[in-house]
Structures are given as C-alpha cells and as structure tokens.
Amino acid sequence: MSNPLIALSAVELRRQIGRKQLSPVEVLDAYIEQMQTVNPGVNALCATDFDRAREAAKAAEAAVMRGDNLGALHGLPIGVKDLTETAGLLTTFGNTAFTQHVPNTDNTMVARLKAAGAIVATKTNTPDMGAGANTRNMVWGATGNPFNPTLNAGGSSGGSAVALATDMLPLCTGTDVGGSLRIPAAMCGVVGLRASPGMVPQHSRKLGWNVLNIAGPMARNIADTALMLSASMGHDPLDPLAFPSQPNRVWPLAEIDLSQLRIGYTADFGCCLVDPMIRRVFADRIKAISSHVKSCEPVTLDFGDADRAFDVLRAEGFLAQMGEQYAKDPDGLSPNVRANMEIAQQLTLADRAWAHLEQTRLMQTLAKQFANYDLILSPVTPVTPFPWQTLYADAIDGKATRNYYHWLALTYVITLSTHPALSLPSGVDDAGMPFGLQLIGALFQDGRLLAMAHAMEQALATNPALARPLPDVSELQTDRAQLKSIVTHPPISAANQ
User: Fold this and answer.
1) Model's pTM, two decimal places?
2) Are strands 434-440 and 375-379 parallel, antiparallel or unpaired?
C-alpha cells in the first residue's frame, strides 16, 4: 500500500510543508519509495540523485523550522527531463555519446526551480535527442504507458508524464518543439503546458531567436502546473526571447466564470490526419463542454502548407543543435535525428525565408480568431497509443504519414503559431486509454489560459467519465525487462545510476 501523501497535489504538499504539517524529508522519502516500487514496471526514470536530494530535503526542513522565507516550491521533489542539463547529475540526452556526460551548470529552468525550493530527485526518460513522440533510446530503453506498459507513453517528455501519472513525482519538467509536452501528457492522463515563447527562459538554445524549442512544466492538474510555471518565469539576459514576465499573473489562478467563455473547436485544423475514433471521442467531449460555456462552435482555419513550414524550421533547429555531432558520427544518432539532418541538407535560403513567411501568416490567422473566442479546442493526438516497439504512426485513417513526426501535426501546427497550449486530461478513449484535450489561448496570455483550463477541469471532474483517469499502479509493480531490451551498449557506471 503506497503512502497516501504521494497522491496529494503539489499545491497541497507545499501548503502543508509551509505549515510544518509535513517534513520535506518525509515527502521525499515517500516519493523515493514509490519510484523504487513502480519504476521497474514502466522504466520512466534515468539517473537518480537520491543522496543529494536527501541532503537538500534536510536543509529545506531546517529552513522551515527556522521560519525562513520559503520559495513557491519549497521542499517539493521534481524530475528533470534527460534532455535538460543538471549540474552534477548525469544528462545523456538519450544518446550513447553522452553516457558519461555530467554538466557543470544547470539549465535555466532547473536553476529557477531550485531557487524556488524544488529538489531534483531524478532525470526522466526521453527519445534520442528528443526526436519523436515515442520515449525509447539506446541508453535507457523504452518507457511504457502507465495504463498499458506494452504501449507508447508519448514523447519526447514521456518519462516525465509517466512519473507523474504513477505518483512517482509531484512535478516534472519537459520540453516541446512539435508537441513533446502535450503529447505524452495526453497519452498518460496528466497536464503538459507549452507556454508562449520567452515565458520560460532558456539560454541553452543555440538558436536564441528560434521560437520552436521551449521548456515548460508538467503536473497532475492545472493548479500544480500554474504554480510550477510561476516559479520558472522571469527575465534572463542570456535569452533574447525572455522578458520580465509577471508570475502573479499566473499564480494564484484567477477566477473564471466558465459560463461566459466563447469556445471555438476543430478536430483537425483543416490539415491534420485524425483517426475516426479520436474524432468521435473529441465530438463527445465538445458536446459535454458546450453545456458549461456561453458558446461552442466549429472554427475554420486556413493553415496553408503548415507541414512543409514545420519541416524546414524543425530541420534548421536540429542542424544548429546537432550539426557538428552529425558530421562527426552520423551513425551515433537515431534514425529520427538523421531524418531531420537529411532534410536540412536539401534546404536553401529561399526555403528558410518561405517557411518564416508561412509561419508568420499561420500565426496571424490563428491570432485573429481570439477576437471571437476565448479558447480554441482540438484533440492532442490523432491516434490512441500504439505499441512502443513501433517507432511512429506510419498511417492514420488509411493515409500514410510523410515522415516520423507527421503524425504530430495536431500539436506542431500550434507550435508554429507560437500560441500557448496545454493538454487537459479528459477521461479515456474507446480503447480505454487516456484522452487529452488541447486548449489553446491568446499569445502571452498564459495565466488566463491556465485559469480557463482550471475552470474547465473542475467542470469535467463532476462527471467521472470525463475526469482525469488514473492508472492501476498495482498492476505496474513488476520488472518488465523487455522495456530495456533495446539497450545494447555496456551498462552505465553504477555511480551515475
């Protein structure tokens, strides 16, 4: 029987820590016990940092007892995606060339979360270099879906999503280019937020002005997500996109009258492949939501050639980030990463200029809709989770996908638009797997998006069939060696595990 405190929200844990009702050491130990019990069944965690985490928890407890001013996340354990640098803790990017890579400094978001009192307990699994929405690599193996470990957990923040869904951690970080925060959240029944560019500063991006690649929070509910975002915000002089954002516009959450919201919805943005079953489930959710809001109507969007624009801009980013490694050792990168590099080799300056023009037009097309709607809704994923052994969905509704990430179009068209978006869990699909609604808000209105999502989350929770689904963790408490079977290199030294 697991410790009941691990099911408490991050907001409630922080409240009880602040009131001296819970010790940060007690909280950390409860989550470590859950990690050690459950992770063998899902393989969501990478390098752990339990010894340093316990020292940090003791220091956090001492600060509480002294009556110090406490940060927003004081004493809360977090997991950090293995694509994100952590000082003194192994960071492999899911790539065999980095199995001994221990960074000297923290990523910007990690540093901010630590400054707010969060305690890094572990890294979470990701595909090789974050390429793709199936969390598997040759360093740590595959991560199984908590509702069925033989199926895909999504990606590239799949380890974080699984850790949250199984109560191994209360908060986790993720990153997102084509949907990597939203897709695993949807597939595992948690919340993932892709914030407006610059809301979470990231000075480690090699293309400092590139708006595709962002980092962000993942949590089990909207309030926890908002709390974590507020602790991640702020100006960073080394990130040209960062700006002096105001955390108090995100947390505490504003009160929203759901009955006054105007909702626009689309199942496919007019250009995305979507399975008929997902369309049916989405239509059912829209019907349920329509009874709670002022208006709910379909919206027509012309996103032009969004697929080609994303091809170009994604390839540009991969070339900047990994071009040197590709030139030295292309075979050391996964097929997904090499596919991006091969696209990049064929592009011209004219292609790049066209893609930026198309992205601007797409952004403005969507931005105009927020004169008529408070929120725009869509599905997050076009298919139910498939076996993790299948690298990607090569066909949807009988139509072949163009490449390994084409099946992610529902999320990457919103990435192109730069608007903030999140995945809100809403029951299960017809296959019994978690279903996520993509909620899209106006640019730089992230706090309002979260407040509206919170109101919708509360309304849906009144119907058990539409509330956040929970996996049967007791079914996961077994070592599934097949999840690590794709690992073929020598084991990483025990000191780094």
Assistant:
1) 0.96
2) antiparallel
- Give the pLDDT confidence of 366-384 residue by residue, as tens digits: 999 999 999 999 999 999 9
Residues 6 or more apart in contact with residue 24 via CB below 8 angstroms = 17, 57, 58, 60, 61, 64, 74, 75, 76, 119
Residue 479 structure tokens: 């070592």
The pLDDT, as a whole number, for residue 67 is: 98
Tokens for 412? 């990457």
> Residue 256's CB: how many other CB atoms inside 10 A?
18
Tokens of 301: 């969007």
Taken in order of first residue, the domains within the chain and their CATH numbers are 4-490 (3.90.1300.10)
**Could you give the C-alpha distances from 140 to 91, 258, 490, in angstroms and in order?**
12, 43, 11
The first and second tokens of residue 356, run together, are 């930026």
Task: Name the residue among 87, 23, 9 with its Cα closest to residue 60.
Answer: 23
Q: How far apart are CA 37 and CA 39, in angstroms?
A: 6
Residues 6+ apart with CB under 8 A from 173: 78, 79, 80, 81, 84, 109, 110, 113, 124, 157, 160, 215, 216, 217, 218
Our CA dihedral for 115, 33, 58, 222, rounded to 10 degrees, sits at: 30
Measured distance CA(414)–CA(272) in Å, rounded: 12
Cβ atoms of residues 137 and 95 within 8 Å: yes
pLDDT tens profile 49-80? 999 999 999 999 999 999 999 999 999 999 99
Quick one: which of 436, 464, 425 has its CA closest to 222? 425
- How far is Cα of residue 326 from the mean position of the Cα atoms in its chain? 26
**Cα–Cα distance, 422 to 155 (Å, whole number):** 15
Residues 6+ apart with CB under 8 A from 464: none
By the 10 Å C-beta count (0-12 exposed, 13-18 middle, 19+ buried), 481 is classed as exposed
* Number of CB atoms found within 10 A of residue 381's CB: 31
Would you list the DSSP string of 221-286? SHHHHHHHHHHH-S--TT-TT-----GGGTSSPPP--GGG-EEEE-SSTTT----HHHHHHHHHHH
DSSP line for 36-87: HHHHHHH--EEEE-HHHHHHHHHHHHHHHHHT----TTTT-EEEEETTS-BT
Q: How confident is the model at residue 235 (pLDDT cuts 50, 70, 90)?
A: confident
Whether 219 and 225 have beta carbons less than 8 Å apart is answered as: yes
